[in-house]
Design goal:
Keywords: Plasmid. Helix content is 9%, strand content 44%. It has 111 residues and is mostly beta strands. A hairpin with a 5-residue loop joins strand 3 and strand 4. Strands 1, 2, 3, 4, 5 and 6 form a 6-stranded antiparallel β-sheet that branches. It is built from 2 helices and 6 strands, in the order βααβββββ.
């Protein structure tokens, strides 16, 4: 995801990269994380059934794992997450590493 091996904190008491081991479960709001549907998305009735059923299903809230927070120069925090994505049928899955804004994630409720 992100390699911080050579990152040297100038103020160690106030780190700008905060990692979690183990990762924390989160929900990722894909609508906030990615500007999907803008510039290039086809109308649903123009997409083949092959694509609708076997392509990445990235909609709504997806399960993920928060691996780190990284602070940007303007004070915002970015979340380093791994999102678990399936196809529409749930047959295939892939883990996707992403940097998303803080408003795109919520901590998953404790089980």
């Amino acid at each position: 995801m992100i390699n911080t091996d050579h990152w040297n904190e100038r103020w160690p008491d106030h780190p700008v990269i905060r990692t979690f081991e183990p990762a924390r479960p989160v929900k990722v709001d894909i609508g906030r994380a990615l500007p999907l549907g803008r510039g290039g998305a086809s109308r649903a009735d123009h997409v083949s059934m092959r694509v609708k059923t076997s392509a990445l299903y990235m909609s709504g809230y997806l399960d993920g794992a928060l691996k780190f927070w990284a602070r940007m120069h303007d004070g915002q925090w970015l979340a380093g997450v791994t999102v678990y994505v399936t196809d529409a049928g749930g047959t295939n899955s892939v883990d996707i590493d992403m940097l998303v804004t803080a408003d795109a994630i919520t901590e998953a409720p404790a089980t």
